[in-house]
Amino acid sequence: MSLPARPMASRSLSSRRTARRLAADAGLLVVAVAFLLPLAWVVLSAVDPHAGLRVKAPDGVTLEHFDAILTDEITFTPLLNSFLLCGGATALTVVCAALAAYPLSRYRSRLNRPFLLTILFATSLPITAIMVPVYALFVRVNLIDTVQGTIFFFAASQLPFAIWLMKNFMDGVPKELEEAAWTDGASSLQSLARIVLPLMGPGVAVVTVFSFVMMWGNFFVPFMLLLSPDLMPASVSINDFFGNRGMVAYGQLAAFSIVYSTPVILLYVLISRRLGAGFALGGAVKG
Amino acid sequence: MTAAAPHAGPDLAKTPGSPAASPSPSSSGRRTLRRFLPRFLPLTPALALLLVFLAGPIAYCVLIAFTDLQLTGQAQESFVGLDNFRRAFRDDAFLNAVGLTLVFTVLSALVGQNTLGLALAALMRRASKPVRTLAGGVVVTAWVLPEVVAGFLLYAFFRREGTLNAVLDFLHLPSQNWLFTLPILAVSFANVWRGTAFSMLVYSAALNEIPKEITEAAEVDGASGWRRMWHVTLPMIRRSIGTTLMLNTLQTLSVFGLIWVMTRGGPGGKSQTLPLFMYEQAFQNSLIGYGTAVALLLLLVGSLFSLLYMRLLRTEV
Amino acid sequence: MRPTAARPAVRPTALVALCAAAPLLLTACGGGTGGDPDTLKVSFKQSTDNSVKVMDTYLADIKKQFEKANPGKKVELVPIKAPDAEYYTKLQQMLRSPRTAPDLVYEDTFLINSDITSGYLKPLDPYLAGWKDWERFADTAKAAAQGEDGKTYGVPDGTDTRGLWFSKDVFAKAGLPADWQPRTWEDVLDASRTIKKKVPGVVPLNVYTGKPVGEAATMQTFEMLLYGTNDGTSDPLYDKESKKWITAGKGFRDALGFVETVYKEKLGPDVADALDPNVGTRVRGEWLPQGKLGIALDGSWLPQDWLEGSGHEWPEWSKELGLAAMPTQNGQAPGKVSMSGGWTWAIPAKAANPDLAFEFVKTMQTKANAQKWYVANSGIAVREDVASDPAYTAAQPGIRFFTDLVEHTHYRPAYPAYPKVSTAIQEAMEAVTTGDASVEEAARGYDEALRDAAGGQVTSK
């Protein structure tokens, strides 16, 4: 603190601060409550035997809604499909991004800059816009309604951002650490796998979790690229089962929403615990 | 775009580019190539995926935007030149979608997510820890939830029998069927609910990087909270504001699932933004060529914003 | 940070090679056309009401019979669960690729010509030639599945008609007769007004409208009105002689006016409910059974949801609901109007096992199985052997009434452009329903949309 603190000023300053803290608390609480209302609905309705559309104290606590949805058709198959789809695509994304980031981070070439600019440009393209042509293309090359095709597209759509993030994390690993390995004759791949990646564990975790969360929640991509009901991930099947307005079983919808959202919330909590509150996702994420 | 103003997060802030062992400038092209290829070989899987599944569809998009390809009712498609684009600009439904996309973007991305995110970040710096944790947790949860789940939650919230009207009744304010009377407002609020966390996190990070001395100096000088915000804080985080605005806009431009679940773009197209219009034309009206032309326009607008965003980050690469 | 400018680093050859390889690579990931010669994939439209399983149950039974009669063959049922309009989209998406094309699909007759033009379906004539039962089918039904090339592309599994369903309970409360039969449109509106006045809390009249419900709006409402505005002999939408679509005339405007009146005077459901894609599910599942709806302009198939084992059992429906024919606009001859459509089983051009698929059709169309289906889905028989079987006519109270309407029925001009014309009609209806446009504006909008839909082949009459 560089300023000489005069006693009078500091007292009024501190009381002003308390007042301001209270005001800030009050403001935040109002916003929090507003944000909380829809969330409260889903939690309360899931256990309310007479769930309706508005937030209310449950008429009792029941697990019947969970019981009703925990079947192969409604929950297990779609969730398994989601895991296969998002897990596969995340693995592909992370591997490709790590491989790609290494030369971009370690070697110079006159292609680096244009390549990185293109990647940065691609990170922010609205993927939604190309879904119609992607659909038409997938029909033409017979990839429509295949899990692998959807995985490839998911990975490709997530790659620009993953490469960008991965490279930035990799730049943070000092080169000197690798030099010993190089003099021992290790190839660049070996040095990437044994030295660089272990040192940027948090970075890899961020890329992995971020990719997974984005794909887990994505509706439009599987909605367009998959057709068979038994391949559908949860993001699409929830709409088929519960999207039929009017006849909606609100309790079951709420219960399913909770089951379906839990994995990503857990992942987020886990990673933000490990990496600290203001963790990198916050800053680096494109939303 | 000067100096070290904090902006979108610690990672983007790092100056990339590496002090690598660069090939000596005098080496012959052949030698460079020999060295270059094995070094950059690891790029190929990523490059292949990007070319085939991202560049490919974009190229294909350009191609079919100029045809009359249909989902049904057509034996053979043909090139129609600029017909699809001409048609778009005299199509009231398209112009309606453009207008609604503007409203949706301005309301939810520029005004809603951005302002609320900044306000939350600023309040969080002053608030007590438990409140900060609670508010942060709730806002971030809304963000992490899958898009379709968020859509259902807000559908329930805005329905005639939903929570919002219950609150309004309680406050003796007039209630209405929001999804019917003001659907674009409802979906905009939904997007604010879902997307504010991102701005909040970015601004929190940015505000944390402002040296305490600076704000305290202003405080002791007796500057009021608003004046401090306006004259000291905002200028210091202006780059974060720029990137956040861009990213919010780009994200909002591609919202589909949220609106699809809440209103399907209705009623009467009153919440039909461009992505929904594109889907309807391509599939429900079977006009894949026309839908793709709309997609191409959307892609162009997105590219413009993307280029702007890159200019903001120009010094980074 | 600027990259150091080394001399040419890499020639673009690698990139070019990659681009060239891309389609190959893609096709390689695509793999084969996914057809197991012993598995028959049959796709069908599953109800969006989770408790209604009429078609699921019926097909499960046929599957069992088929697998028993054809040892070694397996039937895979592929349900498509979506509101009507989205069902057609999904189906067409599946028909486009050999990987996703099922062996047998359920096609609405209004779409069949459009899909034939796209080359999605296989002509069935070689199969039909060797199938004796085909002679049992009525000519109108055969015509409904015929392409412009004269070939037949589907086997119809029934037809339908449309009329007015009314709640006797609501009518009693409103002081209206239990044997109600309106003579003109005005009679229908007057009855609705009476209900609105005397029976609060009840929706007086449901007429489907707008794009969300899709073809139901066009056919159940608009065409039921439009085909009652003229002399009842010519087609008000399409001129067969000049092969041109007809722009909005007086009848068209009057029909729009009827829809406008219903929603402007709040005789219909809340507009928000009317524009919900699943309003039909509510009409059948909630409003009619619970006595919350006075009059419904709807199809002959409604009781399928109320039969035993269907999920919404309502055996008393025949006592609690009355039936009336839809009148012509001013009561002009022939006095009544009805529209008929129907569904067919069709074999996709890209099906892997077309022969087996036709065998499955034959199993569905043994007389016993066909009759079972007609009873289960409240269909109107297009096979004379079923139609004349007393076990069928007596199975359900509504069958006689709706079969008699066949005499006054009309068929849609289901040419390839029809689906788009239908969308244009729905847009016009939606505009007057929400009040966004006047009848005049909506009709002008239709004319414009019609020109696009019909590729300029329009005429005014």
TrEMBL record, chain B:
Transmembrane regions listed in the UniProt entry: 40-66, 93-122, 134-158, 178-203, 245-267, 287-310
Low complexity bias: where? Answer: 16-30
Q: Which PROSITE patterns match?
A: ABC_TM1
Tell me the domain of life: Bacteria
Q: Where is the ABC transmembrane type-1 domain?
A: 99-309
Query: What InterPro entries does its record include?
Result: MetI-like (IPR000515), MetI-like_sf (IPR035906)
Keywords (alphabetical) are: Cell membrane, Membrane, Transmembrane, Transmembrane helix, Transport
Tagged with keyword Iron: no
Segments for region (Disordered) = 1-30
Topology in the lipid bilayer is annotated as:
Multi-pass membrane protein
Q: What is its main location?
A: membrane
Query: Coiled coil: which residue ranges?
Result: none
Its localization reads: Cell membrane
The protein's matches in PANTHER family, at most eight in alphabetical order, are given as: BLR7065 PROTEIN, SPERMIDINE_PUTRESCINE TRANSPORT SYSTEM PERMEASE PROTEIN
- UniProt protein name: Carbohydrate ABC transporter permease
- In its UniProt entry, the species of origin is given as Streptomyces cellulosae
